């Protein structure tokens, strides 16, 4: 699992560019996360700054995403 944080700009465009780069770059494309498209952009409202009182939501979000991965 690879978690990304995107700051500013067009989130969908930036996500697509990151995924494209990871699939083409030898440093990334051999990882199981990239091979299996286990790349998740973390929502800015939970991860853009310190989650503070939303820490439970932030951890639940990451846990749910990790649990989607079949080992």
Q: What's a concise summary of this model?
A:
With 71 residues, the chain is mainly alpha-helical.
Tally of individual helices:
5
**Oligomeric assembly:** single chain
- Which H/E pattern describes the elements? EHHHEHH
- Structure class: mainly alpha
Radius of gyration: 13 Å
Strand order, sheet with most strands: 1-2
Shape: flat
**Mean of all residue-level pLDDT scores:** 90
Kindly state the number of beta strands.
2
The percentage of residues in β strands lies in 5-15%
Let me know the largest β-sheet: 2 strands, parallel
**Uncertain stretches:** none
Distance between the termini: 11 Å
Helical percent range?
Answer: 40-55%
What does this protein structure show overall?
The chain has 71 residues and is mainly alpha-helical. The protein has helices spanning 11-24, 26-29, 32-35, 44-47, 55-67, and strands at 2-4, 39-41. It is flat, with a radius of gyration of 13 Å. The relative contact order is 0.20.
Key words describing this protein structure:
two-stranded parallel sheet; single chain; 8% strand; 71 residues; mainly alpha; 2 strands; 5 helices; 55% helix
């Amino acid at each position: 699992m690879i978690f990304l944080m995107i700051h500013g700009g067009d989130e969908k465009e930036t996500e697509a560019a990151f995924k494209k780069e990871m699939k083409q770059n030898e440093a990334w494309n051999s990882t199981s996360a990239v091979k299996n498209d286990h790349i998740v952009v973390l929502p800015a409202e939970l991860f853009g700054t310190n989650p503070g009182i939303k820490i439970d939501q932030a951890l639940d979000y990451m846990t749910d995403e990790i649990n989607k991965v079949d080992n």
